[in-house]
Design goal:
Layout (H helix, E strand, L loop, with lengths): L10 H7 L12 E2 L2 H11 L6 E5 L5 H9 L2 E6 L5 H7 L6 E5 L17 E5 L5 H9 L7 E7 H7 L8 H7 L2 E9 L4 E2 L6 E8 L10 H11 L7 H9 L3 H10 L13 H12 L1
Length: 279
């Protein structure tokens, strides 16, 4: 992988020197592999005028590469214990701004991010869905996201109709995701139990479902997937507290077979369903 080469960080030594241990509760697995780091930057493809948001910079391994490839990096870290080490590692990079906080409680506007900013992050599984929803429904909206997630989660995000999940729909309504690289567990310290994958999402100028109807879409999708083994008729009736006959009538008005299941619907069909529930 081409790109700038930096001396690798000695993660175990850095942790020891600052009296730190990776937090299991925060899902801290620090990416060490230099080629993997460069793959993530290449997937984000920042230009010299771009602003990048990094979520969970950890000890700064990826942050350094992002700083060399863009105009500015805003790195939001929840764990205040990491800041002394982070500030040491990132001292040579004046275009990096460190923010101590929870990304889910900070809007892109509050962070001062410009329209069309980029996202590059290695995030723990347990916040994947929440982070995506937060950024993609926020304002301003990013133009590209590159996330390192568990390999199985990447497969779910990129699934096709017939095997869709609420997570996949929540992402694909904003753009087309693709898996661009896989990263073995051995590339991290400490090594997680599973391999990871890098997912890139090119964000559409406008969501597939019109902006004004996104709230209805998410409400219907959540209800539809609330009881995956049930037909849409029964899942929507239970999730929305409707009579089954009412749910069936709405599905038929949308031109959909009430016996289908939520994972089989494509985005156009979800759009038809939103229209049927809004009339």
């Amino acid at each position: 992988m081409s790109g700038p080469n930096l001396p690798p960080l000695n993660i175990p030594a850095l942790l020891r020197s600052h009296g730190l241990r990776p937090s299991k509760g925060l899902g801290q697995n620090f990416l060490e592999d230099q080629e993997a780091l460069k793959r993530i930057v290449a997937a984000a493809d920042p230009g010299p005028a771009d602003t990048l948001l990094e979520i969970g910079p950890g000890l700064g391994s990826l942050t350094r590469y992002l700083a060399l490839s863009s105009a500015a990096v805003t790195a939001v870290e929840l764990d205040g214990n990491l800041f002394p080490a982070l500030e040491t590692v990132l001292a040579p990079y004046p275009n990096v701004r460190l923010v101590h906080g929870d990304i889910l409680k900070l809007s892109p506007a509050e962070l001062g991010l410009p329209d069309g900013y980029l996202v590059a992050a290695n995030i723990p599984y347990y916040i994947t869905s929440a982070v995506l929803r937060h950024l993609l429904t926020g304002s301003p909206r990013p133009r590209r996201l590159v996330l390192t997630v568990q390999r199985e989660v990447a497969a779910r995000i990129c699934a096709a109709p017939g095997d869709l999940s609420l997570l996949a729909l929540s992402v694909q309504v904003f753009g087309s995701p693709e898996t661009v690289a896989t990263i073995p567990a051995s590339a991290f310290h400490p090594a997680p139990r599973v391999d990871s994958a890098v997912v890139r999402l090119e964000v559409l100028p406008e969501p597939v479902i019109p902006e004004a109807k996104l709230e209805s879409f998410f409400r219907l999708a959540k209800a539809g997937f609330s009881q995956k083994r049930k037909t849409l008729r029964n899942a929507l009736a239970g999730g929305l507290r409707l009579e089954p006959s009412e749910a069936q009538a709405r599905l038929e008005a949308a031109g959909l077979d009430p016996r289908r299941r939520a994972e089989t619907l494509n985005l156009d069909e979800w759009g038809q369903l939103v229209e049927a529930f809004e009339t």
